[in-house]
# Entry
Amino acid sequence: MILVIMSWLWIGTASFLLGFGALAGMGKITGEDRFKSVEMYILMGLLCLTVYSQIFSLAAGVGAAATFGVGIMCVAAAVLLRTRLKQYFKYLYTHILQRKGTLLLIPLVLLLLLLTVYLTAGYTWHYDTDLYHAQAIRWIEEYGVVKGLGNLHNRFAYNSSFFCLQALFSMKFITNQSLHTMNGFITFLMLSYALCTLSIWKRKIVKTSDFLKAGLFLYFGYLESPLVVSSPGSDLPTLCMVLYISAKWAELVEQNEKTPAPYGILCLFAAWTVTMKLSAAPPVLLALYPAALLVRRKNWKQLLFFLLAGTGIVIPFLIRNVIISGYLVYPYSAVDLFNVDWKMAASLAADDSREIMAWGRGLTERSLYGAGFRIWFPRWYRNLVGWGKALFLVNIASMVISAVYLVRAVFRKGETHWASLLLLLVSMVQAVMWFVTAPLIRYGLAYMLLTPLFLLGLVCRKTPRGIPSWVICAACIYCGISCMLHVATDFTEPFWKRPADYNWKECSVVKWENMDVYVPVSGDCGGYHFFPGTPNSARLEYIELRTGKTGDGFRLKAAYREKQFISSGTTVE
# Structure
């Protein structure tokens, strides 16, 4: 736990300083130079560090040299912005720390800190961590990016930008183990933001943004969510960011924010979230609102800036995609723009996409991968637990009510706040997209919460003050914290000095192309320690080193490039 706290101090300091510098520079370009909330500075810093780590990975492994570069940038930011930083800390002290109610929040924040540190220090419970998360991070630590790496293990081609950020802060060269503390840090940051900014601490009326913030606690009220705090998977930060962007967007609307820059910053966060996981694409549609404002005001300079910034966030992710898989976006082989020798088989990408969709629908038999709605939906619905079925039905009702509300709002006379309507529409699109693609609860619990919570906020906003709607937010907080306590007491062990290392999986060695490759003795999980690894030895028959050197990458042998492959990496007879 001590090492987790030290890791968080480094992550928090680096991300705050770089985010502070980035938003200060952005303020000079946009003309919107107000101080931002602490979590916005930290998130902007994490965004910049994600882009930095991806760019660095194109040249070398993300390790000591990359960390040294971060240190230099932090010192430069602290020196160059020292006057502004001093003003900001003074602003925090006078406007935040001396505010009424702050003393009441301190014990709750400390409880969240202890809980998240304890959960972060535990074992990595996520199955996919042993399957490919840990090994993908090690490849980034050792080599950065390798051509055709997806041929060795197709899951490496999923290429979440979050793995590069994890590698940047794994600190293996100092701690002699690869730390996996980033999800815990983001969990504490998001829950602290949600808790400390609720309106119930200042007034009795609860706003729509409060319900969306409470959604973060509801998300952690799902048993599996606190279990994966210690793992480096991309599901948790992706869903937390979707909820955060929605809550912060609603907050701006409630503050009657008219300037496009704050909305534009949230759209940059949305672009960053897409690079973590492609299923989080719909929030990017929120960019329509600040873009419309800037076009109306003919502020072409600011519009161009946000377009270039968003493009700069996405480009390193796309470049890594092409290098790892040969495709711009894996596993969508239809977008086939590059004729490179390390390209993965299109049939494997197509089957991988079908497998993701089938598993999300609860279809584990390969013969059912192409099953229609009448077959998969009853099975999927039966597999839901009681609260999952209830939430699904609530979503159907919410979709109908939201559609009626949107139509009436568009044609209603008087002022219409398009930012609020767009947020509701995007929330609906996100839930529908999740349902028709891969509706696994773990993939999309946040999407199922957005529309009902938004409507609940609208209803409570229009009710008399006597109705204690704040009780709902309090119940959500209780739900999340109690679940985290349950996981902490029943599923984790205390690791006081340093967090648990990645799980040790038993593997056997295979001699291949004059090198050792490790294969799991049972199952398909090789973990972090046996490197390089592949989930099965069969695929080694079909691939080869491009030049005889591991760092130069992998490719299909010429004799197998026209063969049909399935997601396990084996051919179809």
Remarks:
- The chain is about 60% helix and 5% strand.
- Residues 2-30 form the longest helix (29 residues).
